[in-house]
Amino acid sequence: MQLTEKHREYWRRNLNITGILLAIWFVATFVVIWFAKELNEIVIFGFPFAFYMGAQGALIIYVLIIWYYARRMNRLDQEYGVHEGED
């Protein structure tokens, strides 16, 4: 099967979205832990920032990433005519 220019554009946009969201995930997961000592000087709701991110913040970011990806991909699928379900 030959990919048309429309297929290539769809996958390029899909990979861009995925790459950006993976970068956000990486920062929320690894960068915060790497710089935990420095970030603990910031206090959120009475807790050091690194502790807050480990206990609550990263989980909130993960849920927001999933929500955004599902919403954005549904719109992208409809835009390119590859969506599933009822119209």
TrEMBL record:
Residues 8-83 form the Sodium symporter small subunit domain. The chain crosses the membrane at residues 15-36, 42-70. Pfam families: DUF4212. Keywords: Membrane, Transmembrane, Transmembrane helix. It comes from the Bacteria. The keyword Membrane applies. InterPro entries: Na_symporter_ssu. This is Putative solute:sodium symporter small subunit. It comes from Sulfuritortus calidifontis. The lineage of its organism: Bacteria, Pseudomonadati, Pseudomonadota, Betaproteobacteria, Nitrosomonadales.
